[in-house]
Amino acid sequence: MRSLLKAGKATCILGSQFGDEGKGKFVDLLAQDADLVCRVQGGNNAGHTIWVSGRKVVTHLLPSGVLHPQCEVAIGAGVVVDPLVLRDEILRLKEQGFDLAPERVHIDFRATAILPAHKAQDLKREFERSQTGSAIGTTGRGIGPAYASRAQRDAPRLGECITGGFLENFANSGHPLADGLTPETITELIEALKFLRPYLKDVAMIVHNRLNDGARVMIEGAQGGLLDVSYGTYPYVTSSNLVSGSCAGGIGMPPTKITEIVGVAKAYSTRVGHGPFPGELSGALEESIRERGHEFGSTTGRSRRIGWLDLVALRYMSCVNGYTSLALMKSDVLCGLEHVGLVTAYKDKRTGQLMSGWPMTAQAWESIEPVVEFESGWERVIGVQNTLDKSLERFVQRIETTLGVPVTYVSTGAERLEGVWRNPV
Ligand code: GDP
Ligand code: IMO
Ligand code: MG
Predict the structure, then answer these.
(1) Which one of 199, 219, 251 terminates a domain?
(2) Is the CB of 302 under 6 A from ligand 1?
(3) Which pLDDT score, from 0 to 100, does residue 299 have?
(4) Domain at 129, CATH number
(5) pLDDT in tens, 70-110
(6) CATH of the domain at 41
(7) How many Å separate Cα 416 from the centre of its chain?
(8) Which of 27, 28, 45 should be mutated for ligand 2, with most atoms under 8 A from CB?
(9) For the chain, how many structural domains are there in total?
(10) Which pLDDT belongs to residue 154?
């Protein structure tokens, strides 16, 4: 099988739907052969769950490569970091027995700090939106306000925050982001920042040096392409770019180093929060897929909405991201369904006409009706000699034909080793 990781090069592992595709599991699987795994955008709105021998590990900010002792991990300047959450995550993983020595964990000085004011603004803005029925359903972690204040050049970064006396002066400066910086919260933040101090580095240079030394580098995407602030279902998106083209910038790496771009998709779709969702299911079928797939958020515990796999969206995401291969996750969850649906086209609800292009405005999304076609379902995921069951294989081939991209890996369970590699190239 062709290796997805190459010496001196980087591989992006990106969500191709609305997040929660199983990126964490896939990154963990590949990380056994990786030297460095990087987070490049988002913050602790992400939640990546990994199961190894019956043991559950959840990461929000640290890259999922952290489970493998030979693998270094990095958080780039494009990430928004809540210092308290990152400190607690490092402590939690240490308690679980993982090595979190500062020698193998690198956090960029230039990552934006999420402050109490960002979290308060996020909740307040969501409440205001809910009054007019336009809430996004954010995770409430302060992600949008942190990116907004970075764009306005208001937000201090981790590097500024650790400078002696900075937070105390900032709190008294009358700055709008000083709201919520009370003596207690300042003390808490300073403690967390002191803890993080040995981890703070120039991550761009570390990545540069590692690549020059021939390291196999991975970029672990957070969220999924349909939540990208430019190319997703705006305004029901997150606040960062998630597409492959933005990954290099989030860590300070030349884009020419990225040679593989893997789109991760579930065999169906899920979405947390509000916004358009072609192919969304309801009733007993939605309930049963949610239960079987344990589709409850790793970050907020919210129920995930469930729908059929959307080939229109996946094809668009493939064009924008340039996937070189796909990983199809959670095929086991659909076992036992007589027929499995696929969204194959979008129609205009009012005219019934097939839409030829991608919906590019909020209004266009409102008028979408999906065309759903059905393929035979599968009773089991594995057929003969550890190959995929025939019906599942047909389903996978349909995805490949539609996108013109090989599905290299099919995941058949949550555990690290449950999955089938196919399509040797
Ligand atoms: P991420 O945000 O993309 O990393 O995905 P999450 O971790 O939020 O959600 C994916 C969930 O599906 C996690 O609970 C994984 O343990 C689980 N999972 C991943 N792959 C599979 C699979 O093939 N089958 C099943 N049943 N569960 C899976
Ligand atoms: P991972 O990395 C699923 C969603 C939120 C909300 C929207 C905006 O685990 O796949 P935000 O707090 O970012 O301003 O919320 O984006 N969202 C995610 N949904 N998985 C994620 O991350 C998500 N990160 C944000 O539910 O609809
Ligand atoms: Mg998740």
Answers:
(1) 199
(2) no
(3) 77
(4) 1.10.300.10
(5) 999 999 999 999 999 999 999 999 999 999 999 999 999 99
(6) 3.40.440.10
(7) 18
(8) 45
(9) 2
(10) 96
pLDDT in tens, 317-356: 999 999 999 999 999 999 999 999 999 999 999 999 999 9
| pLDDT over 70 (residue 310) | yes
Compute the distance between CA of residue 37 and CA of residue 51 in angstroms, rounded to an integer.
18
For residue 225, give the amino acid letter: G
Q: What is the mean pLDDT of residues 407-415?
A: 98
pLDDT at 424: 54
187 and 224 in a single domain? The answer is no
49 CA distance to ligand 3 centroid (A)? 7
pTM above the 0.90 mark? yes
pLDDT at 300 over 70: yes
Three-state secondary structure readout of 226-244? HHCCCCCCCCCCCCCCCCH
**Virtual CA dihedral for 186, 150, 200, 255, nearest 10 degrees?**
170
Last residue of a domain, one of 199, 233, 261: 199
Residues 331 and 309: their CA atoms lie apart, in Å, by: 11
Query: Dihedral of the CA atoms 13, 19, 20, 26 (nearest 10)?
Result: -10
Give me the pLDDT at residue 357, please.
Answer: 92
d(CA 202, ligand 2 centre) in Å? 27
Q: Are 193 and 215 members of one domain?
A: no
Cβ–ligand 1 distance for 15 under 6 Å, the answer yes
Ligand 1 lined by 137 (C-beta under 6 Å): no
Residue numbers of the domain that contains 386: 2-110+200-421
Which residues is 51 bridged to in the sheet? 56, 415
343 closest CA partner among 291, 249, 269, 289: 269
Q: Which of 28, 48, 82, 118 is flagged as catalytic?
A: 48
Query: What's the mean pLDDT when you consider all of the chain?
Result: 96
Phi, psi angle pair for 369, to nearest 5°:
-125, 130
Ligand 2 proximity of 266 Cβ (cutoff 6 Å): no
Residue percentage of the chain with pLDDT more than 90 = 96
Are 179 and 306 in the same domain?
no
47 C-beta closer than 6 A to ligand 1? yes
Question: Which amino acid is located at 365 in the chain?
Answer: W
pLDDT score for 1: 46
**Same domain, yes or no: 11 and 79:** yes
Share in percent of the chain as helix, strand, coil (round to 5) = 35, 25, 40
Q: How far does residue 411's CA lie from ligand 1's centre (Å)? A: 9
Is residue 72 packed enough to be buried (19+ CB in 10 Å), middle (13-18) or exposed (0-12)?
Answer: buried
d(CA 396, CA 70): 33
